[in-house]
Amino acid sequence: MTIGVAAAGTASFALLYAPQPVLAQLAADYGLQPGGASLAVGVATGALALAVLPMALLAGFVGRRRLIVVSICVSVAIGLLLPLAPSYSVLLAMRALQGAAIAGLAGIGAALLADRLGRAGVAAAVGAMIAGNTLGGMLGRLLSGLSVDSLGWRGALAVVAGFSLICVVVTIIALPAAPAADAAVEPHGRRPSVWAGMRAAMRHPELGVQYAVAFLAMGAFVALYNVVGFRLTGAPFDLSPGLASLVFLTYALGAVSSAVTGVLTRRAGRRRVLIGALFVTAAGTALTVPDALPLVVAGFGVLTIGFFAAHAVANGWTAAAASREARGQASGLYTTCYYLGSSLGGTAGSVVFGVAGWSWLVGAVMLWLILAAVMAGWWGRSRPAAGTEPVTIRVNAL
């Protein structure tokens, strides 16, 4: 079960962010500005955000295991067809469908593990799933970035799709067949509680702050990663796309950061750690301004550490603050805002870079991060800071 879901996460998130390192090549091929090229990422993450909650509801009718298998098969099939897209508009339409398909795993993977493994085994299994998501996000970027020099962007995307196909085969073999109860429709008597939980998740101001933090911080993070390839392959660095893609190795630092955040949160409280993490992200962003490659790489390392820590705290805060009946809906809304931030913020940041350059992008991103920190601080002052209780952290991979 654990291997199957981890392999599904690896395939899904490799496909989701595979175009990010080749945006400069897409722009050159189709005559696009950075903002237009970034839509290759933005439409997929936006479609994922909008499809998370509908997919979670659909799983109650068709079964979680079946939905996951169908979703990843569809996303890989689209990935194999992407290099054949005859136009950029067709490519964007295919990416939107691919993002919606990936939502089938993103929205229900953890729930499937909890149902099948129970409390005793779910913690380790969810950790393995998160590791697969993280590994997939990094490998997808690296495989496409390292392949584009010799194969072009179409060949690079095909390489990622081929890798993901192998992962899907592993998933189909490893995931045990669903018991009959898994495909059962949710009892009618429980449906009103679902909508009551949704209302509670939307009206709670403490949860609203976490949704805003997810939107702003993720938008800032993806905006920087969307256009770093443009900056590093242009003057004054003039790196090859393959060398420029190595900056995505800093992404691995996020796994370490999110792993230790729980300990810091229990000691210092959620509010302090969240605000501190957002300012670390802003500090790393500021480091990237000088035209010095070591500082740019170091800055991306620091901002990645800060972002993943902030995301882990906000995600855990959402789970802790939501009532029992609203916990699932709150998690879904957090995930929706998280990927909407990726879509809208990532695209907006790319437009800023295309019009005004890197320094203006850094300024915009830092404003978003400061706004998120102010909101977190405002809520923390309005009530005693929580954080001494155990925190459940479920990190969505990028």
From TrEMBL:
Entries under CDD domains matching the protein: MFS_NepI_like (cd17324)
Family named by the database record: Belongs to the major facilitator superfamily.
Residue ranges of the TM segments: 40-60, 67-86, 92-114, 121-143, 155-181, 208-228, 243-265, 272-289, 295-320, 332-352, 358-379
Membrane-topology annotation of the record: Multi-pass membrane protein
Species classification: Bacteria, Bacillati, Actinomycetota, Actinomycetes, Jiangellales
InterPro entries found in the cross-reference section: MFS, MFS_dom, MFS_trans_sf
Main location: membrane
Entry keywords, A to Z: Cell membrane, Membrane, Transmembrane, Transmembrane helix, Transport
Superkingdom of the organism of origin: Bacteria
Protein name, per record: MFS transporter
GO molecular-function terms, A-Z: transmembrane transporter activity
Domain Major facilitator superfamily (MFS) profile span(s) in chain numbering: 1-381
GO CC annotations on file: plasma membrane
Compartment(s) of residence: Cell membrane
